[in-house]
Structure formats: structure tokens, C-alpha cells
Amino acid sequence: MTVVIPEYITPLIPWVRGIFGLVLIGVIFMGAMGAVWLERKLSADIQTRMGPCRVGKYGLLQLVADAIKLFTKEDLKPLNADSLLFNNANIFMLGSVFLMLVALPVGAVFINGVEYPLAVTQMDISVLYIEAVSALSIFGIFMVAYGSNNKYSLLGAFRNFARMVGYEVPLGITVISVAAMTGSLNIVDISTAQGLHWNIFLQPLGCFVFFVSLMADMGRLPFDQNESEEELIAGWITEYCGMRFGLGFFAEYIHMILGSFLVALLFLGGWNVPGFIANNSFFGIIVPTGFLIVKVVFVLMVIIGLRWAVPRFRIDQVVDLSWKKLLPLALLNLVWAVGLGLYLGV
Question: Where would you find the membrane-spanning parts of this chain (predicted)?
């Protein structure tokens, strides 16, 4: 349905989008804090850890204790570190997050049956744009590693390069597969086009490849070779301490939330709800976004749960998995998606 916006509202749209963007940044930061608590709480329940199980109601005060610890630690820097790279790496990591937020829809409201996506802006190639800017975080990781003047940090960064190069290819091919069947590279169009026929049912192989590649892209277990403490102390972040360490990991948690949004939008139907809800003047405003948030939290819990359920791969196993298994499966899914799209008349 075509969205008709009254003329007197048009000049206000940039201001509305700007305010929405600022609010969105705050909400995502709060969501990252929630993800930290969720991970610590789940791990504590699984492994009977004392801290998050006992500190405050549901372990909520553990976040306060962590914040006090990070803010009060001395800010140390290696003697021969490159100050320019070492001090500014977090800007690249958090900048990557902000650039992703610009084009990522976080829900939609339906007013009189008309859909209004909740996104700061819409681009015709938004899904490719999000994938591109998400890769900028690797520059921040390399800046930390190279600027630290530490061989373990540098080894972690090069492992990160090897992993990302291998997994960006199948990740990109699955995104193209979804776009080919939808006929659009706009992530809003992809979400809207799914209706009640989710892409996870139309492209189950593509969903599997995308999710595994996304896990590797985010560096979550079993793909955290760049910071494997048994081999590299803490890898790329070995020399970071205090809030530098906190901001680096905070950026990773935000990436995890945004990755969960991508899974929900590309494969789990996005915010689509049955017509009788979308056309309701009350439920149409709150239910679609709430439905999407529920899916995002579910994906987030799966990602967190896998950390405590699977062992870490060796780096050679990671490389083999990407080039010898996931890449052929991604190409097979692309052929299937194009064929299915032609059959459905897209």
C-alpha cells in the first residue's frame, strides 16, 4: 500500500528521523546492557557461578559491580604502543555500530492499515550497506592489535582477518539469495515481502549458512579464535584494560544485537502480523514491533546459549569450514533461490 504523507508534515521528517536516531542509539545501548546481563545470567545458571546468581535480584546488581570495576581500573598503555592507533580504535568499532543503525529498521507501526517502518532512513541497497559498514569494525580490532606492540594481539588480529575473509563470502551470497527472491536490496522491502511466508521455510539452507557465517563474523564461540585465552592470552584485546576493554566488548555486544535483528528481518518474517492486527488502531501500533523484538531476543538467546554448549574450533578447521563447506552450500542455495523466485514469478 502506498504511503501518503500530508504536505505540512514533509518538512518535519528530517527532524523526526534525527530525534528517532538519537533515541534509537540510547535504546540499543540499553539493549546491549541487557545482552550483557542476559549472557552473564545464563552462564551463571548453567555453571552455577556465584556472582550473577547472588548479586541483587536476578543478578541485576552484577552490572553495577562490573561498571564500578571498569571505571575504577587504572588505564594502562604498553611502553612502546602506538598512541594514535591504541587510543582511537574504539571510535572505529563504535562508529561501525552507529553506521549500521542508520539503515536498520527496528520495527514498524500500522496506522489505518498503512505500514510505517521505524528506520532512521531507507536506502535501495540498505542490506548491502549494512553488511559493508559492519565490516569496518575489523579496522578497530587491527588498530588495537597493531598499536599494542604485542605479538599475541597481532596474532589475534590476523586470525580475525582470516576468519572474516572466509565467512563474508558465504554471508554475502545468502543475502543476495534473499534479495534475488524478493526482487529488492532494501531490507524494509525484504521484511515486508515475507508476509506470513518466512524465508526460513523458503530457504532453510540459506538461513543455516547465514546464521553460521554471522556467528563467525561476530567472533562468537565456536569462532572466537582471535581472543582464545588458552593460546593468545586474550588475543587482540590483551593490552586493553578498564573502560577501553569495556567499550571494545560493548561494541561486540551491540553487533550481536544488530546481527539478531538481521536474522529476524531477513529470515524470520520481520514485523509482519496477520491483517486483523495490522488494521487495528491500537494493536497495529505496538504489536508488530513487539513481535519483531520477541524474535530478536529469541535469536540472541540462541547465540548466547551456543557459547556454553559448543567447543572452540581450531583456526584451520574454521578456514576449511568456510571455503570447503559453507561456500558450496551458499552457491547451492543461490541457485535454489533464483529458481524458486522464477517459479513464484518474482
Answer: 12-38, 91-114, 126-146, 167-188, 200-216, 253-271, 283-306, 326-345
Task: Report the interhelical angle of 242-267 vs 83-103 (nearest 10°).
Answer: 30
Residue 110 main-chain phi, psi, to 5 deg:
-115, 120
What is the domain partition of the chain in residue ranges?
76-344
Backbone angles phi, psi at 119, to 5 degrees: -140, 145
Burial category of 42 from C-beta neighbours within 10 Å (exposed 0-12, middle 13-18, buried 19 and up): middle
Contact predicate 267/207, CB 8 Å:
yes
Q: Give the separation between CA 272 and CA 192, rounded to whole angstroms.
A: 7
- String of DSSP letters for 265-323: HHHS-TT---HHHHTSTTHHHHHHHHHHHHHHHHHHHHHHHHHTTSPPPPHHHHHHIII
pLDDT tens figures, 27-47: 877 777 888 888 887 777 777
Instruction: State the Cα–Cα distance between residues 276 and 255, nearest whole angstrom.
Output: 34
Tell me the residue type at 16.
V
